[in-house]
User: Which sequence fits this backbone?
């Protein structure tokens, strides 16, 4: 089953068209890496998928539930209850962590499951502690974000995204704010999640990581999906000139 279906999505900011007729489907357990130069539209695509931006045209469905459809006209979003259900199907991890600075680590992780999903507090607490253990942060529950390294903060952000029990996770450049040593920490966590068959869409510049962990790689440029396929095809043997130029520049 496809967990995400995007058809003919368009997005502009003023006169600048950032997404031009993007269509994409994501199957269960699939790991997709999205590559492309700055300004290619990849982060905007992720923000539209995460409903942080509204689309100007097209349709998006999550786990078989339609969230928005334009039917050729102005996009119409589903009712509040449907959108709440849809938003519970995915978790989002930002490049700058976006943790609540005045919440402890544990409260950052448990806030949405308890207050948004209205789940049992005791059960949520147990799950949060298990997630912290999984992230190698068992002793950090009472810490505040400022007391943690960037890599630790990003691992808390991943635990927070997992706490709502999503069907899929969206990552927007999850390592771009980190130095190489901390980057390795986060990529290890993502590889573990991939091994556990977590569905993930990852906007990244980490080419070796994308090659080793992705089922599919998408290369975007100028608001279009220029090329997509298996990592061995898109990264090691790209057919499009723009993809070749981008990868060559990254390798320099």
Assistant:
């Amino acid at each position: 089953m496809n967990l995400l279906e995007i058809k003919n999505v368009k997005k502009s900011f003023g006169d600048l068209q950032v997404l031009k007729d993007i269509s994409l489907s994501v199957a269960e357990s699939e790991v997709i890496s999205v590559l492309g130069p700055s300004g290619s539209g990849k982060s905007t695509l992720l923000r539209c998928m995460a409903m942080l931006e509204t689309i100007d045209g097209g349709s998006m469905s999550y786990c078989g539930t339609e969230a928005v459809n334009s039917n050729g006209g102005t996009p119409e979003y589903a009712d509040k209850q449907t959108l709440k259900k849809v938003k519970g199907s995915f978790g989002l991890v930002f490049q700058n962590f976006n943790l609540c600075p005045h919440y402890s680590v544990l409260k950052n992780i448990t806030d949405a499951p308890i207050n948004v999903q209205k789940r049992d507090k005791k059960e949520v607490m147990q799950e949060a502690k298990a997630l912290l253990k999984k992230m190698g942060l068992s002793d950090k529950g009472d810490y505040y974000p400022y007391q943690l390294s960037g890599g630790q903060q990003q691992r808390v952000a991943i635990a927070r995204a997992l706490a709502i029990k999503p069907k899929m996770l969206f990552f927007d450049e999850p390592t771009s704010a980190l130095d190489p040593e901390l980057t390795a920490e986060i990529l290890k966590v993502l590889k573990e999640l991939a091994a556990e068959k977590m569905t993930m869409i990852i906007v990244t510049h980490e080419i070796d990581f994308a090659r080793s962990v992705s089922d599919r790689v998408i290369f975007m440029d100028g608001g279009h999906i220029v090329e997509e396929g298996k990592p061995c095809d898109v990264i090691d043997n790209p057919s499009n000139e723009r993809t070749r130029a981008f990868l060559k520049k990254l390798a320099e």
